[in-house]
Amino acid sequence: MNLIPIAFDSLGVRSMATCLEAGGLRVMIDPAVSLGPRRYGLPPHPVEIDRLNAAWQDVRGVAESSDIIIVTHYHYDHHNPDDPDIYKGKIVYIKDPKNRINFSQKRRAHYFLGRLEGEDIRIADGGEFSHGPLTIRFSQPVYHGTGNRLGYVIETSISCGEDKVLYTSDVEGPAMDDQVSFILEENPRTLILDGPMTYLLGYRYSEEDLSRSVENIIKIISSTSIKTIVIDHHFMRDIAYADRIPEVYMSAQDAGVRVLSAAELTGRTPDLLEARRKELYRSSPVNRESSM
């Protein structure tokens, strides 16, 4: 399978937009991009806004040419209700909009689906589906993070022959047993992982959450046939991310497993614009309240 990271936090925007190509089919997962509305008390810098616009054009172009689109939950960095044309003529797998979903996401899902009337919409949760040589499996809903405050997401496993890629969506770790169980059961070669939310460590993410996440990633390395872990999204909002999980990098090195960001997977240097927002304002001052 050909794995193409389209937009990720390590590429300067909030996103996990991912494309997989195999067997003559193109699958797009979570075609959306967004920016953190405030960071360090600052709104997005114009550099971030320019990156957002460019990233959305990339995402839109890939989505329009895809055969299958997957929406793992209804946060705006994972779905875009304002451009329904990208879903036209596609098979669209979605997180169940009525069950195991919090109020905010249920309301967003209702609006989103209202804009997709007439499209081929299929509930994904816990399902298995075949498309030519591709098999797509979805987990049961798991926490967005470590509790139900932000709702639930579905993890996605896509296989073609002996190759398999698993996309966790927003597990923020993974710190929870059921988030890890699906990964262990699927035994992927490549894992696209929303890593620990260390930029909010001690506030909305505890040392215990981080410790469990490290233990679970090491368990994945030691207990599966994993070859590559792409760790990104929430993890890349911490400028010091590389210092947060040294045990993971050491375990991976010993096992011959690559652990890298989406940017590094594509041969680029991580460009953590949100984490560097103070630096951006220092180097290129703008009117803070009029940048959006």
What is the helical fraction, as a range of percent? 25-40%
- Which sequence of strands runs across the widest sheet? 7-8-11-12-13-14-15
Number of strands: 15
Give the overall shape, derived from the CA principal axes.
globular
**Per DSSP, what share of the residues sits in E-state strands of 2 or more residues?**
15-25%
User: Quaternary status of these chains?
Assistant: single chain
Could you tell me how far the N terminus lies from the C terminus, measured between alpha carbons in angstroms?
Answer: 38 Å
Describe the protein's architecture and organization.
With 292 residues, the chain is α/β, with parallel strands linked by helices. Helix content is 27%, strand content 23%. It starts with a strand and ends in a 9-residue tail after the last helix.
Outline of this structure?
By secondary structure, this protein is an alpha/beta fold. It has seven helices and 15 strands. α3 packs parallel to α4 and α4 packs parallel to α5.
Write a concise keyword list for the protein shown above.
single chain; 292 residues; alpha/beta; 7-stranded mixed β-sheet; 6-stranded mixed β-sheet; 7 helices
What order do the helices and strands come in, and which of them pair?
Elements: E1 2-8, E2 16-22, E3 25-29, H1 46-64, E4 68-71, E5 91-94, H2 103-114, E6 120-123, E7 128-131, E8 134-138, E9 142-143, E10 152-153, E11 156-160, E12 163-167, H3 177-186, E13 190-194, H4 207-223, E14 228-232, H5 246-255, E15 258-260, H6 262-265, H7 277-283
Parallel strand pairs: 3-4, 4-5, 5-6, 12-13, 13-14, 14-15
Antiparallel strand pairs: 1-2, 2-3, 7-8, 8-11, 9-10, 11-12
Helix pairs in contact: 3-4, 4-5
